[in-house]
Amino acid sequence: MTLHENEIPVDEPLVRSLLRAQRPEWAGLPLSPAGSGTDNTMYRLGDDLLVRLPRAAGKGQSVRKEQKWLPRLAPFLACAIPEPLHAGTPTGAFPVVWSVQRWIDGAEAGPETVRDWAAFGADLAAAVRELHRTDLMGATRAGDLSWYRGGSLIPCGQWVGRAFDDCRTTVGAELDIDTLEELWRTALALPEPAGPQVWLHGDLKPTNLLVREGRLHALIDFGGLSVGLPDAEHATVWDLPPRARRAYRDALNLDEPTWARARAWAIAVGVSGISYYWHTFPAFVAECRARLQAILTDAAR
To answer: So which domain of life are we looking at (predicted)?
Structure first.
């Protein structure tokens, strides 16, 4: 499944060739696909390892961020996070940095894995609070650690507007795009968020939340790691059931302007995801549609 222009083809023989060249002691271990997202393809290696390969050259900076910062963040977080074990270097066959991480056992958050959604929402809030309170250790909102989701909504207006137009064409009969755009514009009119910049995971959707024994166990995929304002961090709670969403907001005591800006970020990512991936990634489009429907349902109450 190709999602981006200039995507680098990846298969098992390529991964084994990288391992033979750079970590021959791992090259003979069992290797199997472990899923793929919008930015990376993953393979499980043996029982304890995960190979993470960017889909395109421009995605390599995310791997570098993880390799540099995750070992520094881990001691401050109660939740497990990925542990980089090898910084793969580019080759002729794969001209991008790549990574081997320690495998984390767990299942994605969902109705079959979470016992109590209110408790899960509170646990996620606690993990977010820990991350946001972790010292920046000299990191600033610059270079690889500057991502749009940690900034202002206003500069996103042009591309979000185009995404609304696309969504009217594709899903307008099934989603109330006008109401979503109204909620977006209401948030744009709010004062800019105040407060210190913090560490941001950037994409705490259910596929990046691992569960053990019914409770939150690990945060994975820190490709969106950045330094910025926290509003966008809360956007993915609309991917969770209402009980989790309410518990999360209550635990963090988020005020109405913060909640409205977080909702606007959720709308922006949802409509742009539908627009960009409509023809290439139907599963992700379905996630975006479900998120937008959850926002509309909340707004109607």
So the answer is: Bacteria
Strand arrangement of the beta sheet that strand 215-219 belongs to: 107-108, 209-212, 215-219
Nearest residue to 95 via CA among 166, 205, 14: 14
pLDDT band at 1 (very low <50, low <70, confident <90, very high): low
| Architecture of the domain whose range is 12-102 | 2-Layer Sandwich (3.30)
Domain 107-300, CATH class in plain words = alpha beta
pLDDT in tens, 239-283: 999 999 999 999 999 999 999 999 999 999 999 999 999 999 999
φ and ψ at residue 88, rounded to 5 degrees: -70, 140
pTM of the model: 0.94
Would you kindly state where each structural domain of the chain is located, as residue ranges?
A: 12-102, 107-300
Give 11's DSSP letter.
-
**Which pLDDT value is given to residue 57?**
79
Q: Specify the pLDDT at position 84.
A: 97
Strand ranges (DSSP E) for 121-204? 198-200
For the record, the structure tokens of 285 come out as 């489009």
Residue whose pair of structure tokens reads 């330094």 in the numeric block: 227
155-178 pLDDT, tens digit per residue, is 999 999 999 999 999 998 899 999
Tell me, yes or no, if the two domains 12-102 and 107-300 fold the same way. no
For residue 71, how far is the Cα from the chain centroid?
19
Under 8 Å between Cβ of 109 and 23: no
CA 267 to centroid of chain Cα atoms:
15
- Dist. CA 299–CA 246, nearest whole Å: 14
